[in-house]
Design a protein that fits this description.
26% helix; Rossmann fold; 174 residues; 7-stranded mixed beta sheet; disordered N terminus
Amino acid sequence: MTSRGTRGCSTSGGNSGEFILRVCKKHPGLRGTVFDLPVVCDIGREHVRREPEAPRIDFVKGSALVDPLPTGFDLITFKSMLHDWSNDDATRILTRASQFRDAGGTLLIFERAPIEVGTASVPYSMIPMLLFFRNFRSPLFYQERLKELGFEGVEIQTIHLEMPFFLVTARWGG
């Protein structure tokens, strides 16, 4: 989390709400907001409603391309979401998020890394991901965009699960 860690976390691409639930379980003083499409928010709200952390998790329905983004957070995350968009739209989403920056806050991107199809055998469990393998872009794409938007301290971490992932973090200057 960030050094202040008091205002909370906003996540776009909330999916089932499990990511923000895990963050809130790990950090008992944290509040989180999921910003995602209406049906996704409904699924997430249902998923977390019986959890003790549910009162600290809000769901805001909208589209990251056109609707007002939630504000007032120390951390904004994009988890497994930006790959769904073209390069131009992913850049637009990051640009919109950068407009709500607060000095000292952090932006975090967690995405699947490009899959090198044909260079190694692929586990059967990855077959559904192969539908999207052309959409997974290099973390350098995000690093370049964030630097262009004025973010500082951009770092990339590679994480090998059953397939490659990366974590890009950047701080808002100010």
